[in-house]
């Protein structure tokens, strides 16, 4: 598995686990070799393969202001977690240091904070005030204004002011946004209102750029939904000479304009660009928030060297103009054709502070007690080519980015609906983040859709939705009259309520500022919503039977130990088989006799002891030496079972300990049997007595050949090799099969090893006491 570190803004950093993304991530890692931030991360919102030492440096061009989430993942890809024992991968300890360096003001930037960003001042061409928040967007809805006493000459500005006062007193806050209290006001539908108004912005003084390497930066806040904005330049002066009156040699000069949302643009990194000295720059449906503009003069390649030299010393002055087009009266779109509605949040339960449902502010289309609202009367009346658009705006509060946005649309008739969603601005057919219709969706892995055209139903989740303003554009293709359609939008914890196959848990991130939720699935299901069936119920039963019943192979070495009156080994093998069966019964979710940790410790500790005892038994040493070795091994194996029972290295460690015990036992056995050969002179002069060494080695080989039954010993090594192979081949999908084979092979190998050891002669024919007749003189009869 490939460990990665992921970055994301506004929502938890969850990786895309699709095959396409994983292949692209791995290929980029192989091609680049390293990820050092400044060379690779043009966009910080991505995942990076983790290395031992990783440094990422990003500038203001790459990081936009806001809340950033960092996530570390031990691996990517599908995983089966039916058994906790299989989780024996690598363990990583992560230490991170995050340094954020910035200037004291948002209008200053640069490594030395010596560059400025000019703020463009704006003035409106109508009497309407610029809406400052999302909730103020409904002030331009004619149904929301108090026009009861309005006459022919209506002062709309005063009506808006009265509406603002009403809202400020009627809307308490829930987590920093509007609550659900409301007040109905009288309306007069005969008052004509303008459909669109224009906000003109300009820099108060003429700006100048001195050479083609200089970038001039501007910023402007868009605080309400806008249909478009236009950037243009006028009064261009080159070296204090009007461009229009200049010679043809300066026709190659261009004033390039780069715009980018929420971050500083560059020539190589921007959202849109244009030569505003000739044509204005048009941005349709801009996102709500801060936009940055960068201007740069460029020279089209000329052959005239005089022109090049003159241009390098040129100074271009201009006046920048910015026009922001916004719709009024609850309208939206390029021509203010479609209806738009602002949805307010209603808290579902006080026990979960991040679960809401959204309803329109007008109670005629949905009550505060119902989680859904009627859609038909909210749809736009006009249509273009038999297509209508209706927009809904809502706000995801801070701290709720770990939740999922659930959208449902149900129609009683087969009206073909499409839903386009977009973060920060109005969605369109050409500009959207997520798209779902009644038959399909185009979104990647961050959306979960379940639609049914036959039932007229659209149902999808936006997973780990980003904090901020979202828009949903409902596009109806065919016009079906007198139909009933309902829509519901809610902010929920776990998608699909964990598919009724698990439990939803809520937690708080390490900063304590954001909630997130996750599903704890049962043994048979997996996935973030527990919708993936890992194993069928019948398969789960068979897996449980294999894992538990395979421990019955412990009967073989236990029976042989009892037959040879090796009671210590008999107790070990019997206890090991029973504890392993109880542990796996608990691990697969059947029945737990004790706590999982206690059963796991007993299983691994007794298994380690049984393996080592098999090797010690083969040494055939006296009971005192055997007790000493068993005591030392019990301490070491207990530490192994407690500190990291499922580590693969433990198998090698235990086999090494058993081999060491076997060698130590042989040394004790043969040193006691051949003690007479180890004379003091032999210790000093054996190195020069080749004849004695050769004789000693030959006697050792003959003793080993007589000590073991070699066919059984060969079968024991085959069983041990099969056990090691089974351990290596275990994975999340085939764990039940290979681990069951591990039980059978390791106990069978122990049985053959026990059978391979020949008993001592005095064990088969114990020496009987010898009786001797003695003569005894009888007393005389005298």
TrEMBL record:
<keyword id="KW-0472">Membrane</keyword>
<feature type="domain" description="EGF-like">
    <location>
        <begin position="519"/>
        <end position="530"/>
    </location>
</feature>
<keyword id="KW-1133">Transmembrane helix</keyword>
<keyword id="KW-0812">Transmembrane</keyword>
<dbReference type="GO" id="GO:0005886">
    <property type="term" value="C:plasma membrane"/>
</dbReference>
<comment type="similarity">
    <text>Belongs to the TMEM8 family.</text>
</comment>
<feature type="transmembrane region" description="Helical">
    <location>
        <begin position="735"/>
        <end position="755"/>
    </location>
</feature>
<feature type="transmembrane region" description="Helical">
    <location>
        <begin position="541"/>
        <end position="560"/>
    </location>
</feature>
<feature type="transmembrane region" description="Helical">
    <location>
        <begin position="710"/>
        <end position="729"/>
    </location>
</feature>
<protein>
    <recommendedName>
        <fullName>EGF-like domain-containing protein</fullName>
    </recommendedName>
</protein>
<feature type="transmembrane region" description="Helical">
    <location>
        <begin position="651"/>
        <end position="668"/>
    </location>
</feature>
<feature type="transmembrane region" description="Helical">
    <location>
        <begin position="604"/>
        <end position="621"/>
    </location>
</feature>
<dbReference type="Pfam" id="PF12036">
    <property type="entry name" value="DUF3522"/>
</dbReference>
<dbReference type="InterPro" id="IPR000742">
    <property type="entry name" value="EGF"/>
</dbReference>
<dbReference type="InterPro" id="IPR021910">
    <property type="entry name" value="NGX6/PGAP6/MYMK"/>
</dbReference>
<keyword id="KW-1003">Cell membrane</keyword>
